[in-house]
Design a protein that fits this description.
Number of domains: 1
Helix content: 25-40%
Protein name: Putative phosphoglycerate mutase
Shape: globular
CATH class: Alpha Beta
GO molecular function: phosphatase activity
CATH topology: Rossmann fold
Distance between the termini: 42 Å
Strand content: 15-25%
GO cellular component, one term: cytoplasm
Number of helices: 7
Strand order of the largest sheet: 3-2-4-1-5-6
Structural class: alpha/beta
Oligomer: single chain
Keywords: Glycolysis, Isomerase
Radius of gyration: 16 Å
CATH architecture: 3-Layer(aba) Sandwich
Order of helices and strands: EHHEHEHHEHEEH
Length: 202
Amino acid sequence: MTGKTFVTLVRHGETIWNRELRLQGSQDIPLSEVGLAQAEAVAKRLQHEPCDVVYSSHLSRAHRTAEMVAGSIGVEHQVCRDLMERSYGELEGWTREQILAKFPDFWGPGKEFSVAGLETFEELAERAKSAILEIVAKHAGGNVLIVSHGGTINAFLHSISDGVYGSGVNKLGNTSVSRVVFQEDGAWSVEMVGCTTHLLEE
């Protein structure tokens, strides 16, 4: 009997490509000056909350955000590559406008597109859920903080809530905080999605 496991999900801080509405996917784009300030703000928000460990993807925008949060809390930071953003193949680097001009209904679950190197939504959701379940199993009954990417977090939320939350429903801002709980019976509950109140305090 290990009890509930509490998971806090944080999207990385802003990058220049975020500002330009340019699709990043697996591209390793660093935090902008604004993104570093956002990471500092979310680290300050989370510094006194219970947390046993911080995980992040290896991409620098999430990795750097996680480093700042883990440093503020005083816990270990570990890397899990499966927390990375969706791979968009040849569309990476395109602007939102360019993508919508070619694929008007591109975003959201359940759609298929013929794009070289594109990871399907279902593949992303399965990857994200498997990675987070593995992390939860290692820290059962504890408090885990995960820094990842908008598409990845939303696909996970969609997966555990049967589409009530996540992709196609919620837009996650940079350094937004979401909270889920893994119950003892193996069910998930969603407690909060996309909160950015720490940015309003700046």
